[in-house]
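Field reference: sequence -> structure
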Amino acid sequence: MSNIFNKQEALDHCITETSVPGLSRYKGKVREVYELNSGRLGIVVTDRISAFDYIMRQAIPFKGQILNQLAAFSFEKVKDIVPTHIIDVPHPNVTIAKKCDPVPIEVVIRGYLTGHAWRTYKSGLRTLCGVQLPDGMVEHQRFPNPILTPATKATEGHDEDIAEVDILKRGIVNEKLWNQIRDVAFKLFERGTEIAAEQGLILVDTKYEFGLFKGELTLIDEVHTTDSSRYFYLDGYEERQANAEPQKQLSKEFLREWLISQNFQGLEGQTLPDLPDEFRLKVFERYSELYEMLTGSGFEPVLERDFNSTLIRLLSEN
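Structure field:
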């Protein structure tokens, strides 16, 4: 990795919030979305980072650039499976996209008993989102077949697990559309698994978000990135499982583990810790490593000292 930059300057110039006069803005946990003309959106991927549905007070240098460019790379790899919302990527932090009507469900596909699934299993439960889990499994074990564990897409607070039968029962998505979504989601996971394996990685689990553009199912948000996915290193996976050793992984799970070590899991009464600068740079290195492993290209950071001015110019041109 080259990644030559002034570390303190990078820490000081993280993109945490933007503002474009005259344009309405939706602010998500990581992305800020501006309404443009002709049914288009200007999506800004900031350097904010979240875990346990909380946004950390400190941002991660160049995280937005890595995520945006990794998403663009991955969208290109799956566009033959389902249309994507991408129109253009005029800047490392910015995507111009089709404005879609979002489906209010996060479609989570899991290939392994890891993370939230493992925490649920470890608690003694054997059902996750209506899916029966077999007895006798261990952490990070591969499922016989990938499972679909959806979650409701909350505008505030925590997303909540939901069974497929309840999605239909509550009329959140009609049956025909849901069947199309689940079929596409498993095909996307299969493609993501193949791409990861070619680069020496295992796609452990991931989430997809969909919308409708002129009535057509469209993949939106991000795909197969570090924020939406968990990856293990393929080399040594079997040996680590056989020896009950922790799996080497590239994901946000290490941030969650660090927060847990600081006694924070987003629960009532817990205090959100600050991220030390040294740890923020380590998080950047993790993101950068996954980008380079998945794309096969070096990540070249672009330091923006006045990103907001650049953004105003870019969106005025689109």
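Note: The chain has a mean pLDDT of 93.
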